[in-house]
């Protein structure tokens, strides 16, 4: 519906596997000093010297993780990189390389793959990661993207999920919930379009939410920001499955409890408006909606002064003894036990 | 057809995404000193000290790369690891870690995934690689496996595709063609089974060929063998797409030509018998059949004496000036230009 109808359609089979790989990878640049050899051999060769290496991987499946009815292929390529880079950022590491594997059914012409790879190339430049390998093949159905992201960090910089202490403060970057509501808007427009393909959607009021869904950014800047503030988080995770679910991961692995304050949740004004329009409780979406790709972390109480007025960060709660459990403290000052209701790709 | 019909069927959705990942990954062990942190955080953390890091990735799609009608899931899991480990071996590096991502449609019960992961676990133990991460999700259709393999090597050990010199000898490990004929036997049995599901196939005569197709091994031993012989190949590649196609890769990247000798091709006696039974020219299969996962490499002429009588290696040709082209020298001493007719997943 948003996607351009490209008049040119070149069959992928015409190029052959090696021709296709040459065609798709010709725009990839090597910029990282740690990349000794990129695409073109049995494997890439990397040199991290005295740095530690951080590795994460994700699989994105059409119809499960994305819907091409409203996700332009260029945005999808960009987002696929962002999702993986975000995991590296969540270790407080610097993203350096990615591998990209793609499988497509024969309904995709070469021009569609070009769009996808244009998005991947754009994201690789934006985040300064080298594309060092991958695989391109056919699928029985739909589009499948598998990305592995690699990063580097000094050992003492790396932040795990299991380091939160019971008196730590809980901090989140940016705002939350918008990506989920962006998806609701797009789903609604898709239904409108199915009923009337000639309708011209006016999505101006939803620009921010849709952008959060279609073109999220990984918080690569947070590492630098925290470094400048001389803060090292005690634990960290990225918010892909929803705040609630990620808090439970941090608590479980760190063996602590948590009080999360409803009135502290950083949400965008347009997010509240659209929640009202959809008649959905904004707090429920803010804590359960996923795909924001913000970072959630804990810091020692002593670091409060360093972070309190910083517009990049919001203190949303504090950790407690494990036995106290994990609760949302509402505006009415009642405590509600948090449940992980994160976005679960397997039960959709 | 070969697969056991497991009477128990547990729906994957019952476990939820995190429950499923916990269940599937509980048997993975960490044995490599370079693995600081495996599964359980946003990313794994590795430490290669002064070694270089080698990375390769592959995507395996049901109906394109494998057929579950004759590929038992346990074998498939094993083979998926082998295919990736083989790429690391082809760099003359030591495989150390893998990430494993799997997408399945809801036709797969938990017991099927358990079989697949049993094969993955078995291969990880056999090749001493740590499973350090991955992703498990649902697919719209069929089974999808994405594996990234990581290895380590000293810089001076690493062998690329582009180092062959015009006077080098061309060497292959093991024997070739058998995996392709194993596939032909299995395809034939599948057709027999479709006509008569009660037929009991007698596959004794084809054991070796079927094993080469269903349970190939990566030549992790070659690195050690060559080290003991004090030979460093000048170029190397693994034979996944067929000898002919891989020779052309080495020649193209090294800017040399090649004479390959038909009478030197290492083939198994049962392979010849089955080629005759299928009325297929054995040389054509030996040079074009893929999936042998043997290693193909070039060595300096001075190393001839070190390798000539070694049962692990066969000298099958020699490199030439680039302008001389790439030829098969037949038993009748005629030269035929080689064409890359390698197995191409995109034109199937």
Automatic annotation (TrEMBL), chains A, B:
Annotated binding of Mg(2+) 3, by residue: 42, 87, 238
Pathway the protein acts in: Cofactor biosynthesis; thiamine diphosphate biosynthesis; thiamine diphosphate from thiamine phosphate: step 1/1
Annotated binding of substrate, by residue: 65, 291, 343
One Pfam entry name: AIRS
InterPro entries named among the record's database cross-references: PurM-like_C_sf (IPR036676), PurM-like_N (IPR016188), PurM-like_N_sf (IPR036921), ThiL-like (IPR006283)
Domain PurM-like N-terminal: 40-152
Ligand binding (ATP): 134-135, 161, 240
Enzyme nomenclature, EC number: 2.7.4.16
Sites where the protein binds Mg(2+) 4: 42, 56, 87
Annotated binding of Mg(2+) 5, by residue: 241
Keyword Metal-binding found: yes
Catalytic activity from the UniProt record: thiamine phosphate + ATP = thiamine diphosphate + ADP
Record key words, sorted: ATP-binding, Kinase, Magnesium, Metal-binding, Nucleotide-binding, Thiamine biosynthesis, Transferase
Binding-site positions, Mg(2+) 2: 58, 87
Domain of life, source organism: Bacteria
Record-level Gene Ontology MF annotations: thiamine-phosphate kinase activity
Functional description taken from the UniProt entry: Catalyzes the ATP-dependent phosphorylation of thiamine-monophosphate (TMP) to form thiamine-pyrophosphate (TPP), the active form of vitamin B1.
Additional facts recorded: Reaction mechanism of ThiL seems to utilize a direct, inline transfer of the gamma-phosphate of ATP to TMP rather than a phosphorylated enzyme intermediate.
Protein's name according to its UniProt entry: Thiamine-monophosphate kinase
Organism field: Flavobacterium algoritolerans
Gene: thiL
């Amino acid at each position: 519906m948003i996607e351009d109808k490209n008049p040119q359609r070149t069959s992928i089979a015409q190029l052959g596997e090696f021709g296709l790989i040459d065609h798709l990878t010709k725009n990839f640049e090597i910029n990282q000093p740690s990349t000794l050899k990129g695409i073109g051999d049995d494997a890439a060769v990397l040199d991290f010297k005295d740095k530690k290496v951080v590795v994460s991987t994700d699989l994105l499946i059409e119809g499960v993780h994305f819907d091409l009815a409203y996700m332009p292929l260029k945005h999808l390529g960009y987002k696929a990189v962002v999702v993986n880079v975000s995991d590296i950022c969540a270790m407080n590491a610097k993203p350096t390389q990615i591998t990209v594997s793609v499988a497509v059914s024969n309904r995709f012409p070469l021009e569609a793959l070009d769009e996808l790879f244009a998005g991947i190339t754009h994201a690789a430049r934006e985040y300064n990661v080298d594309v060092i390998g991958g695989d391109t093949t056919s699928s029985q159905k739909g589009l499948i993207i598998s990305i592995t992201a690699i990063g580097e960090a000094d050992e003492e910089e790396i932040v795990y999920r299991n380091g939160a202490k019971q008196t730590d403060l809980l901090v989140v970057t940016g705002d939350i919930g918008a990506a989920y509501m962006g998806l609701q808007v797009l789903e609604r427009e898709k239904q409108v379009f199915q009923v009337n393909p000639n309708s011209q959607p006016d999505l101006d009021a939803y620009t921010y939410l849709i952008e959060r869904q279609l073109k999220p950014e990984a918080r690569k800047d947070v590492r630098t920001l925290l470094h400048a503030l001389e803060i090292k988080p005690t634990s960290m995770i990225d918010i892909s499955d929803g705040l609630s679910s990620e808090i439970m991961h941090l608590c479980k692995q760190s063996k602590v409890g948590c009080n999360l304050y409803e009135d502290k949740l950083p949400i965008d004004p347009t997010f509240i408006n659209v929640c009202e329009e959809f008649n959905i409780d904004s707090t429920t979406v803010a804590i359960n909606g996923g795909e924001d790709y913000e970072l959630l972390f804990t810091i020692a109480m002593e670091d409060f002064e360093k972070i309190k007025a910083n517009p990049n960060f919001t203190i949303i709660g504090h950790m407690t003894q494990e036995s106290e459990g994990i609760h949302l403290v509402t505006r009415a000052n009642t405590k509600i036990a948090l449940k992980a209701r994160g976005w679960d790709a397997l039960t959709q």
